[in-house]
Amino acid sequence: MPPTLQALLLFVHLVGVVVWVGGMVFAHFVLRPTAVELLPPPGRLPFMTAALNRFFRLVAVAVPALLGSGLALLLQVGFARAPIAWHLMLGSGLLMAGVFAWIYTGLHPRLRQAVSAADWPAAAAALERIRQWVGFNLGLGLLTIAVGVSTRAG
Ligand code: HEM
Which domain holds residue 76? Predict the structure, then answer.
């Protein structure tokens, strides 16, 4: 593979990480706590639903780009010769993608339905589950970054 293509794939890979993991940091530590602080449930839940809708649409593009570029980089070396860290990255990347798919296709529609029915207790429960799973994926994402850069430790 030409070095320029390799650099381009790594760029796409890291932009995917920035959008996904950076977005989760923002949603978890900034957006949600501020919404809880300033907005009552009938304002907060539709706001969070709409904000997450935009974020998840971005993530739905970032995830295939991240996994696709990672796989292309890995296959260039081959599974047999790839360092263990790359195998771990593949495993946790797939787990993260599975968790995202569950949030996007399972939990978020539940939240949207409850918000459009103005059922605030059900909406709050769905949002709380999303918060927990996003927190899980954020922890796993940070761990995966550590695994990714660990090959540089020698
Ligand atoms: C299908 C899943 C994935 C595969 C197959 C994969 C594969 C790879 C490969 C082969 C590299 C090395 C590129 C090179 O140096 O030429 C790499 C770099 C990297 N990956 Fe992944 N990756 C995956 C998912 C992820 C995820 C989910 C994250 C973080 C949330 C991540 C974070 C990183 C980082 C930070 C680097 C840069 C490491 C460095 O240059 O020191 N990867 N990935």
Answer: 3-153
- Residue-wise pLDDT tens digits, 82-92: 999 999 999 99
Stretch 110-134: mean pLDDT, rounded?
98
70 lines ligand 1 (CB under 6 A): yes
Secondary structure in 3-state letters for the chain: CCHHHHHHHHHHHHHHHHHHHHHHHHHHHHHHHHHHHHCCHHHHHHHHHHHHHHHHHHHHHHHHHHHHHHHHHHHHHCCCCCCHHHHHHHHHHHHHHHHHHHHHHHHHHHHHHHHHCCCHHHHHHHHHHHHHHHHHHHHHHHHHHHHHHHHHHC
Rounded to an integer, the average pLDDT of 116-126 is: 97
Does the CB atom of residue 75 touch ligand 1 within 6 A? no
Measured in angstroms, how far is the CA atom of residue 89 from the centroid of ligand 1? Answer: 6
Q: Which atom of ligand 1 is nearest to the CA of 10?
A: 13
Query: How many domains are contained in the chain?
Result: 1
pLDDT, one tens digit per residue, over 23-38 is: 999 999 999 999 999 9
